[in-house]
Amino acid sequence: MRLDQYLALIGDSKVEDWRLITRPTFRHHFHRGTDEKGEEVSVEVDEHRVAMSFSQNIRITLAYGLVSDSHYRIDPKHKFGLLNARSEFVDCFYDNILVHRETVVRVARQRCVLPEPADWTESPIRVPRRKARFARLIHVLAGPLTDFDEYFKEAGMVEVEAPWP
User: Fold this and answer.
1) How many CB atoms lie within 10 A of CB 117?
2) Distance in angstroms (rounded) separating the CA atoms of residues 20 and 141
3) Phi and psi of 122, rounded to 5°?
4) Mean pLDDT, rounded, for 2-16
5) How many angstroms separate the CA atoms of 121 and 38, rounded?
6) What is the DSSP letter of 116?
7) CA 68, CA 50: separation in Å to the nearest integer?
8) pTM higher than 0.90
9) I need a surface site. Which of 75, 85, 131, 138 has the fewest CB within 10 A?
10) What is the pLDDT of residue 155?
11) What is the DSSP letter of 125?
């Protein structure tokens, strides 16, 4: 299976095709803290909030919620620019092998999971259709109980036919 086929299968899937497993997800990420001399002084452990298995093919799994940037910056001129945002990873696995890592952004004080655009200053913000579908699926499965389409539109995003990834 090619990566584009894999991501199309996910993007075209339905919410009911997925089984969710909340923490612990057993996909730990370790951060080593060092002092000014470069010596290790602490270890922090993080993990994805949710793991998801695709019921139509259990070789396909996703893991969502590992924080990429807790102080994600959106251009201050953008509507969501001055509201708290953070980026998180969606890790895509096939036969338990990481095959793709996508970054999504929780905007408006964590109220919506949106695709990370190439440029927040573009107007409109063009997002490849499959990337938008992928982010919508993650939002509905594991994000806040808000309307993805409403925030997508409010962010100035539009779906376009373009290759992704």
Assistant:
1) 19
2) 8
3) -65, 145
4) 93
5) 38
6) P
7) 15
8) no
9) 75
10) 96
11) E
